Amino acid sequence: MNFRIVVGVDGSEAGRRALRWAATEAEIRGGTVQAITVWNWDGTGSFAPMATSPDEERERARTVLAREVGPIVNDFPTVTITADVVEGHPARELTKAARDADLLALGSHGHSHVYQAVLGSISDECVRTATCPVVVVPANRTQPVAPAPAFATTR
């Protein structure tokens, strides 16, 4: 049995953490990792405002993916890691790629609730639509988050 983890890679610290988590998990389980960077062209580009054409946007996505996967391949030589660049909507393409995967791993960017309400969240959409379990690796926090108070109820 081959345990396969699909992981979204976008060049962010959160994506980097998710990729490292996925490689560690694959190493423990004897599995593989499929790292995916999704790009799209709407005139502004995913990596805006740097790209000026769809070809340039695709190439930037390839560069980001290679830059992120290279160190992980070196750090996890026993794990098979593939890297794919896909055009489309990130959540749709990631859940499609993970359709027959054992896990989908994503990084949480830790955006505010206002940001998520206005622009949406790739990880939120993937959690709602994926057909496999989704692991959202939290953003690296410099301050620990205080636990929510516990409430006890009695009858």
Blueprint (SSEs and pairs):
Blueprint lengths: L3 E5 L4 H17 L2 E8 L14 H22 L4 E8 L2 H8 L5 E5 L5 H7 L2 H8 L4 E4 L18
Parallel strand pairs: 1-2, 1-4, 2-3, 4-5
Helix pairs in contact: 3-5
Unreliable stretches (pLDDT < 50, length at least 5) are: 114-119
Q: Helices and strands, in N-to-C order?
A: EHEHEHEHHE
Beta-strand percentage?
15-25%
Estimate the global geometry from the Cα principal axes: globular
- Please provide the count of β strands: 5
Work out the radius of gyration. 17 Å
Instruction: Report strand order across the widest sheet.
Output: 3-2-1-4-5
Q: Quick one: biggest sheet?
A: 5 strands, parallel
The DSSP helix count reads 5
- Average pLDDT over all residues: 84
Assembly type of the chains comes to: single chain
Structural class: alpha/beta
Report how far apart the termini are.
48 Å
- Percent of residues in helices comes to 40-55%
Task: Please supply descriptive tags for the structure shown above.
5-stranded parallel beta sheet; 5 helices; globular; 40% helix; 155 residues
Task: Describe what you observe in this structure.
- With 155 residues, the protein is an alpha/beta fold.
- Helices cover 40% and strands 19% of the residues.
- The protein has five helices and five strands; from the N terminus they run E-H-E-H-E-H-E-H-H-E.
- Strands 3-2-1-4-5 form a five-stranded parallel beta sheet, sandwiched between helices.
- Strand 2, helix 2 and strand 3 (80-87) form a beta-alpha-beta unit.
- The longest helix has 22 residues, at 54-75.
- Residues 114-119 have low confidence and may be disordered.
